[in-house]
Amino acid sequence: xxxxxxxxxxxxxxxxxxxxxxxxxxxxxxxxxxxxxxxxxxxxxxxxxxxxxxxxxxxxxxxxxxxxxxxxxxxxxxxxxxxxxxxxxxxxxxxxxxxxxxxxxxxxxxxxxxxxxxxxxxxxxxxxxxxxxxxxxxxxxxxxxxxxxxxxxxxxxxxxxxxxxxxxxxxxxxxxxxxxxxxxxxxxxxxxxxxxxxxxxxxxxxxxxxxxxxxxxxxxxxxxxxxxxxxxxxxxxxxxxxxxxxxxxxxxxxxxxxxxxxxxxxxxxxxxxxxxxxxxxxxxxxxxxxxxxxxxxxxxxxxxxxxxxxxxxxxxxxxxxxxxxxxxxxxxxxxxxxxxxxxxxxxxxxxxxxxxxxxxxxxxxxxxxxxxxxxxxxxxxxxxxxxxxxxxxxxxxxxx
Length: 400
Hints:
By secondary structure, the protein is mainly alpha-helical. It contains 11 helices and 6 strands.
C-alpha cells in the first residue's frame, strides 16, 4: 500500500512544471501614437501578467528514481505471484483475472518506454506508446486488493447492477428528448455569410447540433451547471426548467437503491468485524483460563509433593529424637500463637489439596484398571479368533 501510494504521488507530481516565471514587463520598443498631429511615445505596460513554464522533462530526478524503485517492487511481486499461482488457480486463470491484468498494465509501460528508440525518451514521437503511460493511473486500483472500503464499493456496484442499468437507461432517454428540444428552440437562424447558426443577439449559438446539446443536458441534469452554454429564449428556458426537475427525479431514484445496498453491505461488514473481534477475545480468554487452571494444578501438585516430603522428613527426625521433636513443636506453637488463623487457613488448603490429590489418584487408578480389563478382553478375543482360523491347531468339536 505504501509503495502504491508513493507511485501515485510520484507520477502526479511529475506533471507539475518546474522553472516557471511570470511575464509582466514593459513592452519594447514603445509604440508611437499620433496625438493632435504630434508623434507621441508611450511606455505600454502589459497588465495581463501570466505565468509561463517550460515543457516538463521526461525522466527527471527524483521522479524517475522513485518510478524505478516502485516498478521493481511491482515486478518482483508480480513474478513471485506467477511462480506461486500453479498451487492455486493456475497460470491461465491467474493471467485473465481483472486485478492481475491491472497489475500487468501498471508495470508494462515502463519497460516499453525503456525499449523504445532513444533509451526511454523515444516515446515523445510515438503517440501510441506514450498513451500507454497513462495506464500508470490504474495503479490506484491495486489498493482495492487490501483496502476494505474499495472492496465494499465494488460489492455495492455488483449488487446494484440492475439499478445502475436503469439509471443509464433513464439518463440516455432524457438526453435524447431534452437535447432535441433545446436544439430546435435555441438553434437560431442560419447566417449564410458566417456559415453558422446565429442567435438574435448576433452571437453564435452553442447548440450547433443535438450531440453538442447533450453536453448542456447532462451538465444540467446532474445539477453541475458550468454556465458555458445556456438558453436565452423563453421556450429554451422552459425546457431547461423541466430538464432540471427531471434530472433530480431520474438520478435520485436509482441512487437511493444504490445507497440502501451500500448501507446493507456496510452493516454486514461491521457485524462480521464485531463477531470476529468477539470470537478472538473469547478464544484469548479461554486460553488464559486454561493456562491459569494448568498453572494452578501444577502448583497444587508441587505443594502436595513438598508437603509429603516435609512430613516424611519430620517423621524420620521424630523417630530418631522424640524429645527434640516435642520440644520443637512446643516452641513453634509458642511462636505462632498470634498467627493461628493463618495456620488454620493453610491447613484447610492443605487438606483440600490432599483430598484433590487422592481423588485424582483414585480416578487414575480406576481408569488404568478399566483400560487393562478392556485390553485383556481384546487380546482374548483376538487369540480366540486366531486359534479358530489357524490350520495347524485342531478345531474343537461341537461337544467341546
